[in-house]
What we know:
This is Cytosol non-specific dipeptidase. GO terms for molecular function: metallodipeptidase activity. One of its GO terms (biological process) is proteolysis. This protein is 31% helix and 23% strand. By secondary structure, it is of the alpha+beta class. The protein has two domains: 12-173 and 402-489, Zn peptidases (Aminopeptidase, 3-Layer(aba) Sandwich), CATH 3.40.630.10; 175-395, Alpha-Beta Plaits, CATH 3.30.70.360. Strands 5, 10, 11, 12, 13 and 14 form a six-stranded antiparallel sheet that branches. Helix 1 packs across helix 3 (105-118) and helix 9 (410-423) packs across helix 11 (469-489).
Amino acid sequence: MTVFAVSKELPEALQGLQPAPLWRFFGELSSIPRPSYKEQKVLDWLKLFAEERGLAWSQDAAGNLGHIDMVTEKNADVQHDFEADGIRLVRRDGWVTADGTTLGADNGIGVCAALAVLDSPPSMPLPPLEALFTVDEEVGMTGALRLDPGLLTGRVMLNLDTEDWGDIFIGCAGGGDSALTLDLPLEPLAGAAGGWGARGFRLGGMLGGHSGLEIGEDRANALRLAARATAAGLAAAPGVRLLALSGGDKRNAIPREAGFQLAAPDAGALEAATAAVRAAADAFRLEYGALEMGLALTEEEVGSEARRAGLTPAAADRLLLLLLMLPHGVIKHSHTVPGLVETSSNLASATIKRRTPESLTVELVTCTRSSLDRALEDVRQGIARLGRAAGATVHQDAAYPGWVPEPDAPVVHAAAAAIQGVTGKAPAVKAIHAGLECGIIGQKLPGVQSVSYGPTIRGAHSPDERVEVATVAPFYEATLALLRRLAQAA
Length: 490
């Protein structure tokens, strides 16, 4: 078992908050680095929790012991190592947030609610409980996909991983990623060490956010805008070349920042390209108006080594073809559920995987979602065809299934009654355009009844992530009330 330091001191931002056990565990959890694929420290913390309380635990081959990983996003000006540093918590205007990074309330609050229930006194009327903590939820739900169903005997599942308090979710979209890899030829820029000039540009300050929950809000995609600005710069003067372009980070986050570098054979051409990029940024600010008030263009110098070679014009065209034409945003709304996004795709990232003097390898990742399996695969097939037409190697893992709503399941009625008993208001029962593990786990556990609910979280998958303090206590109270109802029905 890994030896590591967990802070037992309650952070100032959490002092005085109720329910105290939940917030105490959240303070400890926040001190443990837990990016996707690197959850070993938090898994060991959970095992220690169980052993200290005499609770049995099992772990499958995937590492599953709700989901314990978190999306690791930070503002560009923040120094933070997600593999080594805990999250710095801040309380502001009734919300708990982090200092310039993602918070991890998605799904840290759900994890800590489960721990608080398991830590309840023996007198608490509870049904027999199993707590499932999955790994790698934020990067394709591979923990749930590889779950050994033999770990579990229960057939009622409470998924504490949604973000609108007072609502109950009983269905979700399925999804699948596409990775397109381009090997792009470079050519030396004649006299690059002398007459050629270069400039770097970065578009940032955009809202970003969850690629399912917030894809319908028409937020700017920094990667798409960077491609548009690049195209404008290349067209501004003869001989302008693209050196590199990258942006985005996580498959399930709308890109907030992206950067690119242009080179030109003389000062006049470089200034023309720069003016075109600046004009494009002005147009973007006009286009997105009050929605993206933070949208900003910054410029930086490019070293002589980086400007020795640029993409051939044909290679730049191949890259821009994909960045400009791959689907992003809402593709279709549901005709059955008013307001529900049915099918969407997120142009998530462009990453430079390898650079040699002769070539640049760039990987583009998209995340596609749909409530309908056929629609999902049709979009993914279109992405694959476009990628191959541009000369990319395309890799697509099998999509994960959606969660088909069962509005008359007994657990749905019990959850609705429990929440109404706390809030005095009947909850809305909804489906969600995001990937929840309920659909995957439901396929592995025939006959399972599921509901999903949670406190109010905003800005998930971005450094603006925050949880509303006033919703956490009623969320936990309703969880206990629901468990009491299930105990009585057992």
